[in-house]
Amino acid sequence: MHRVAGRRAADLAGGEVYANIHSSTYPGGEIRTYLVAPDLTIAKTHAGNFRQGETGAQYTITVTNGGGGFTSGTATVSDTLPGGLTATSFGGSGWTCSPLPALSCSRSDVLGAGNSYPDITLVVNVAPDAPASLTNTAAVAGGGESDTTNDNASDPATIAQTIPVLGRGGLALLAMLLAGIGIWVVRRSLAG
């Protein structure tokens, strides 16, 4: 093998490391192949807006190998919830996940270039007093990758504010207020 010793991970990721197999028949080399590294990326999405007090809101986390080589070793996904969200479920097919409240899943099966692992679903409850916007962040690590600059994903969510519900007394008070405004408008128009 040539050019491997002393090279940085960037050379491997850039496709600048190669293997050249020699034999007695072909002393100059008969098979040459460039070695390329895997590059795990992560995406995090949700659909629509969440609302204060909502239960069962969902995020989808996708891990993809955007590099040219196969993954090796364990790949781990972790999630960091902002205040205002509480996890009720975290997992996906083939992932081994820690029990809640930890938000960490891992797997060690090989992922080929251009492929994605099965999605991880994060189910959360939204606090009744959650702010108008919350940003959730997930990260991926491991898998033998060398480019760690694209291992985080953030997903901002708009939180719809809850409109207070009026009880019987509140509705009666509102009806009297609207009736009073109506009478005042009629009197003004008759007087003017």
Structure at a glance:
By secondary structure, the chain is an alpha+beta fold. The chain contains two helices and twelve strands. It has helices at residues 9-13, 168-191, and strands spanning 17-21, 31-35, 40-45, 50-51, 57-65, 75-80, 85-91, 96-97, 104-107, 120-126, 133-142, 152-160.
What are the SSEs and their pairings?
Layout (H helix, E strand, L loop, with lengths): L8 H5 L3 E5 L9 E5 L4 E6 L4 E2 L5 E9 L9 E6 L4 E7 L4 E2 L6 E4 L12 E7 L6 E10 L9 E9 L7 H24 L1
Please give the largest β-sheet: 6 strands, mixed
Instruction: List SSEs in N-to-C order.
Output: HEEEEEEEEEEEEH
Number of domains: 2
Spatial strand sequence of the major β-sheet: 4-12-11-6-9-8
Keywords:
192 residues, six-stranded mixed beta sheet, four-stranded antiparallel beta sheet, 12 strands, elongated
Walk me through the structure.
This protein is an alpha+beta fold and 192 residues long. The chain folds into 2 domains: 1-36, no CATH class; 40-160, Sandwich (Immunoglobulin-like), CATH 2.60.40.1510. Helix content is 15%, strand content 38%. The chain is built from 2 helices and 12 strands. The strands form 3 sheets. Strands 4-12-11-6-9-8 form a 6-stranded mixed β-sheet, with no helix packed on it. Strands 3-5-10-7 form a 4-stranded antiparallel β-sheet, with no helix packed on it. Mean pLDDT is 85; it is low at 1-7.
